[in-house]
Write a structure and sequence with these properties.
Blueprint: H1 7-27, H2 32-47, H3 49-63, H4 75-86, E1 92-97, E2 102-106, E3 111-115, H5 124-134, E4 138-142, H6 148-164, E5 172-174, H7 180-189, E6 192-195, H8 199-206, E7 212-214
Parallel strand pairs: 3-4, 3-6, 4-5, 6-7
Antiparallel strand pairs: 1-2
Pfam families: Aldedh
Protein name: Succinate-semialdehyde dehydrogenase (NAD(P)(+))
Keywords: Oxidoreductase
């Protein structure tokens, strides 16, 4: 049975949410060109061969999972995500159905809690981050304890890419000392949860009381 969350963890979660909320509100006025420039920067900062190979090998060493030879090839998934995201409009009117009198508008969900699996610490953050930023959302990433160093380093690179564009780095935040109670608290206070991992993690996300996607 998981332990109860501490008051310090509750306060920490609120501080993370506040920082992410401020960053998310700061990018709401950005136009499509600025947002696409940002996701392109994040994508190439993490998916270039040299950087991703280093991150992939770090993840294998830290977690003891995966193939040293095969993991670097996952960078092409980030490139594919970026390609697909750049082809889409993500603000204003994104769909019209005249025969039904319907117009669909894109709107940010706010701050997303992303639970990062131990199996993909170099892939999941940029994959989730690109699409979240595309829609003007901020993300608080909660890494698996077995791969937290790799996750933190990946998100550090993502934040640095935003800093070069003079955009708020706190659009992407990584939990420094992850725990199950802290992850549960983040799922409860954020606007949406994206849980990538095992069935227990996905079930917890669906039971958080907030909208959630399980992968």
């Amino acid at each position: 049975m998981a332990r109860a969350i501490t008051e310090e963890e509750k306060q920490y979660a609120q501080e993370l949410l506040k920082s992410a909320r401020i960053a998310q509100q700061a990018i709401e006025a950005y136009d499509q060109e600025a947002i696409d420039r940002a996701i392109r920067a994040v994508g190439w900062a993490t998916a270039n061969e040299k950087t991703f190979t280093r991150l992939a090998h770090l993840g294998v060493e830290e977690s003891g999972l995966g193939s040293w030879e095969g993991r670097p090839g996952k960078r092409f998934k980030i490139q594919g995500i970026l390609r697909d995201a750049l082809r889409q409009k993500s603000m204003g009117i994104i769909e019209e159905i005249p025969e039904k009198g319907l117009v669909k508008y894109a709107k940010p969900v706010g701050v997303i809690a992303s639970l990062v699996p131990t199996t993909n610490p170099a892939l999941t953050p940029p994959g989730i981050g690109i699409y979240a930023l595309k829609c003007k959302n901020a993300v608080i990433f909660s890494p698996h304890p077995r791969s937290k160093k790799t996750t933190f380093e990946t998100i550090r690179i993502m934040r640095a890419a935003l800093k070069k564009l003079e955009m708020p780095e706190d659009v992407f935040i990584c939990v420094e000392k992850p725990s199950i109670p802290l992850s549960q608290e983040l799922m409860a206070i954020c606007d949406l949860t994206i849980a990538t991992g095992g069935s227990a993690m996905v079930k917890a996300a669906y039971s958080s009381g907030k909208p959630a996607y399980g992968v």
